[in-house]
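Changelog entry: the Energy-coupling factor transporter ATP-binding protein EcfA2 record was regenerated in this release. Current contents:
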Amino acid sequence: MRKRGTQALLLPHGVRALVPVFAASGGSGRSTLAGLLAQALAPTTRTVLVDTSPRAASPWADWLGVGVARDEAVGLPGVLSPPGRPLDLAALETAVVRRGVPLGRLRKDDLPDMGTDAAGGPGYDVLADVRPWTRPPVSVPDDPRWYAQLLQTGGWFAGVVDTAVPLAAAHVAARNAARPSVLDLWARRTDAVPVLVTAATGFGATALARLVTVLAQDGLPIDRMIAVVVNVAGTDPPKWMQGELDTVRGRLAALVRVPYDKAIRADGLARLGDVGAATMQAAQQIVREVAGLVRPQASEERVAYDEVAPAPQSHQPPVHQPPGPGPRGSGQRPQPNPSGGPERPGWVPPRRG
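Regenerated C-alpha cells:
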C-alpha cells in the first residue's frame, strides 16, 4: 500500500527504473548527485548505485569508509572478472556495500513494506571498485542491457548509474563515426531516464545549452531527460547564466537547481546525516520527475558481459554513412571533400588560423 508521505516518490509498480547520471561539464558534482538520488530512492524501493569510474578517479571507496582494506575480489571487479562471467546473485551479494540512509522527515511507519530488505532499515547498495587505487581499472560495460540485467539478477527496482563517460565529446565522436553513442543507447530505453548534470556557472550553463541543442538536432528524446544545475562554489552565479538556462527550459522534462551544501563540499557524502534539507528536497524533486517519466521496457534477451563490453578500438578510419531523416527532420547535407574524392556526409572543413 502506498503511504501518503512517500506516494510521490514511488516508482510505477513493478517497473525497474534506470537513472544514468551524466556530466555535461567538468566539476559538476556528478557522483554527489548520483548518491543523493540513491539516498532519495532508498526509503521507497530496493536501490543499487553502480559507480563506473576507475578506483583512482572515484570518491566512493572513501565515502563508504572502505579505503584500501577490502579484498580485491570484493566490489565491481569481482562481478566483471573474468570477462564473460554471467551475473549471479551470490557474486552480487558479496560485491555490494550496504549503506543505511537517515529518514529525515519521513516516518518509518510511512514507508512501504519492502520485506526483508528493510530489516536493517532503509538503505541502498553500492557497487564500485573498492580495490587499492594502484590497481589497473576494469572495463565497465556501456550497454544499458547489462545494467538492466544487473537489477533483475540482484532484485533491485531502481538503479542509479554514476557514469564516467565524457558525454559531449563521446556523443559527437560517435555521431561523426556514424555509430550510436552511449546516450543514444540509454535514450532508446523506456525504463531509463537520463540525468544531465552541470555546474551552476556561466560555463556550465553554456555547456548544457550546447549539449541539449546537439542532442535535439540528432533526434534524441530530450523531453525525457532531466537537467540538474548544481551550485558547487557557494557564490552567486553570473546573472547571464539564467539566460543560458532559459534556452533549454521547457525543452527538457525538468530543470532542477541543487543548492550549495557546506557539508557536502567539506566531506562529500561521507556523512549522510549532515546533508541539508534543501539538498534532499532537490533530490526528491528529481526522483518525482523520474517516477513520472519511467515506463516498462519491452522484454529482451539475456546477454553476456563479453557481448556488451567496450569493443577494441580499430585503427581503420570510420565509414561515414548518410544519416537518415530524424524525427525532427534535421538531415545533414553532404559536404564537399577537398581531396577531390566523392562527397562525404558529415565532413567538416578544417579551421584556418
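The chain has two domains: 15-308, 322-353.
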